[in-house]
Amino acid sequence: MFQVNDVIVYGTQGVCRIIGTEEKVMSGVKRCYYILKPVNEKGATIYAPTDNAHVLAKMRKLLTVEQIHGLIDSMPEESASWIENESDRKELYKQALTRGDHLELIRMIKAIYAQKKEREAMGKHLRMTDERFFKDAEQILYDEFQYVLELQSKEDLLSYIIDRVERSEDCKKK
What is the layout of strands, in order, in the sheet containing 7-10? Predict the structure, then answer.
């Protein structure tokens, strides 16, 4: 399914390179593992069993540049409604992070960002759990976008997104 040197997304760990496979005994069981190195976490190593369907379901190929452009272009139209009930919101956000669905993450980021701005206007801070969800969603989404688009930093990516959305909006006005 995956090969050594493939760059993939692995669940909430983000973009990883498969640097090899290795047989290891863990918990008394000998299995073959993919050895994953997160591209943005120096020193981290992840071992993912090659025969575990649940683990393999967390691994996927990177989006293409065209797919990322499609997601960026859809950002202005994505709805972002705030869920007032905190426990419902936490559950929905946990599921969104686990699934890693790009549109869900975009909606989540937009909803939390709007809530943050609203609370700041009232002189309040965003709840710590919402701040954490925001950062996690950004990490998952932006790491992949930044890697595929070959951008050096999160700031470069945000500028890229803003420029693309503004150009798209300008074209719609004409």
Answer: 46-49, 29-38, 14-26, 7-10, 59-61
